[in-house]
Amino acid sequence: MVYNPVHGLPFLPGTSFKDTTKTAFHRSQTLGYRNGYAVVRRPTVGIGGEWLQVNQLSQAELDELANKRPALTYGQPKQAPPADFIPAHVAFDKKVLKFDAYFQEDVPMSTEEHYRVRQVNIYYYLEDDSMSIVEPVVENSGILQGKLIKRQRLTKNDRGDHYHWKDLNRGINITIYGKTFRIVDCDRFTQVFLESQGIELNPPEKMALDPYTELRKQPLRKYITPSDFDQLKQFLTFDKQVLRFYAIWDDTDSMFGECRTYIIHYYLVDDTVEIREVHERNNGRDPFPLLVNRQRLPKILVENAKNFPQCVLEISDQEVLEWYTAKDFIVGKPLTILGRTFFIYDCDPFTRQFYREKFGITDLPVIDVSKKEPPPVKQELPPYNGYGLVEDSAQNCFALIPKAPRKDIVKMLVNDNKVLRYLAALESPIPEDKNRRFIFSYFLATDMISIFEPPVRNSGIIGGKYLGRTRVVKPNSSVDHPDYYGPGDFFIGAVIDVFGHRFVILDVDEYVLKYMESNAALYSPEALSSIQNHVQKKEPPGPELENKQTEEDPGTRELEALIDTIQKQLKDYSCKDNIREAFQVYDKEASGYVDREMFFKICESFNIPIDDSLVKELIRICSHEEGNINYYTFVRAFSN
Questions:
Q1: Is the dihedral angle over the CA atoms 508, 512, 517, 521 positive or is it negative?
Q2: Exposure string for 265-295, b = 16+ CB within 10 A, e = fewer
Q3: pLDDT tens, 384-441?
């Protein structure tokens, strides 16, 4: 061993000396390999294998020396530099919080279990706040298990906020992707970490167990075949003996349900039951022969047999307290078989004899279950909406594509071109409306009414059509069942309410009088007498004298010939039916004469060709010495 004389001297200026005895100056290796990767290795000795004093200090002492600054005797001391920043992926690398949880899952199509409890582990990675959910794999579970949710950041609300380790605790529910997980416990590291951050942990809970899994852990039952009575004797006695019942299943209370007919066979040899459905031709159903195959039917089950897997296994005697027997099938009583209620309404003669000999039942009735036609439902129309006629609006309730209401063709053919015309005045508090006159036209073919106002020059009112053809409803009549005006409502002095406007009938034409006389049943006696008296008072003496002169005076022959000639020339004149009514409006005294000025105004309003030579001659003949004109004779040339 070589003695080093400078060993142990303090490393201060003036006390450091070069070791003259040192002969090795090699450096230690700083590279190495670990698991096939090149890594940096920190040297443990100095140059030439010299002992390093720095290796004798701990990491905490080295950090303190690195950050230590000597204190000054005067002046402001310098602050120590801040600690080195350590990123989260370095500080929390491989630090994971683990929670034990479970969630409940519904099992809709199973008679053995209604829900399933699945246990999971929730992992929270502190380095990036991501989470993953893993379900431990259970052997022969038949469920895809393992990683349910891969590692990712999970949102906790609709605003996009993510779950943080501050949101996790024992005894709480968290919802992830529509599934609710119940956290029951956590591991030791998770508990220490959360408590170090100031979070108070709830007490741990017990993990919920899956009831079906616990049921499978129970030991299997042992079945022992019980002894029974002599089945051979029953076979020899009742072989080929079958009771036949006729039943129906009424399913009309459900949607699209109907009443079906079935035949129930009860086999006495082994107390089994078979149900067959009776099919009819073109009933729209598949012709399956059997509804219930031949089998023993349970009547009363034990309490714990409700969850028995009937769709997989047959019901044994241990799940049934009582089976259906022959005494349960009685005519006239309902019978519930496998959840469906049948009503037995008849049986065959052998069945009646069997019940009479075996049970002493002699009065098995025959019940009539034939379907009776329901009473017709009266169709009720919705309230009238006010648009169009009531008959037209009602067609929308009878068919998807409305059709025009039926019309009385016979009435339209008989009364074609038959029009009743009346002269009326408007009842109004306005002074300008007192002298207005209107002509009502009642069309017998369609029972429609039109109103025409003769134009009067310089009256300030535009005449013409006042109301088009329509049916007018009487006041105070029902909206759904309206009462329209008819021919019997029009007579002298009658008040006609046309959509809120009141009109008083003042005069009628000659055709109305003839129609009333031929159809007196439609009018009251007072209406007939009022119109007849009015017409008699209205007839002027001029036409009567003219009729007498026709026989005596040969000049009247020329007048008749002139009228015939004018009628032939003006046979297509459109307003010839309303000329007489227009003159009567201004003839207040019903004398049959009007002054010349008013006469020419009315002729001009109707566009009568007064410049024609024949018409001028007719005006000259009808003129009176006092300057008035006899319009009764004049309108004969323009009437039908």
A1: negative
A2: ebbbeeebbbbbbeeeeeeeeeeeeebbeee
A3: 877 777 888 888 888 888 888 888 888 888 888 889 998 899 888 888 888 889 999 9
Residue 544 corresponds to which tokens in the numbers above? 């009567």
DSSP SS3 for 465: strand
- E strand map for 306-382: 320-323, 334-337, 340-347
Residue closest to 324 by CA, chosen among 296, 343, 292? 296
Tokens of 303: 């309490």
Tens digit of each residue's pLDDT (9 = 90 or more) over 43-79: 778 888 877 766 667 778 777 877 776 666 666 666 6
Q: Would you call 608 helix, strand, or coil by DSSP?
A: coil
Q: State how far the Cα of 166 lies from the Cα of 159, in Å rounded to an integer.
A: 18
The residues facing 323 across adjacent strands are 298
Pull the structure tokens for residue 503: 């009109």
Q: Which domains, and CATH codes, for the chain?
A: 1-84 (no CATH), 89-216 (2.30.29.170), 231-358 (2.30.29.170), 409-536 (2.30.29.170), 541-638 (1.10.238)
Tell me the C-alpha distance between 69 and 84, whole Å.
Answer: 17
In whole angstroms, what separates CA 423 from the centre of its chain?
56
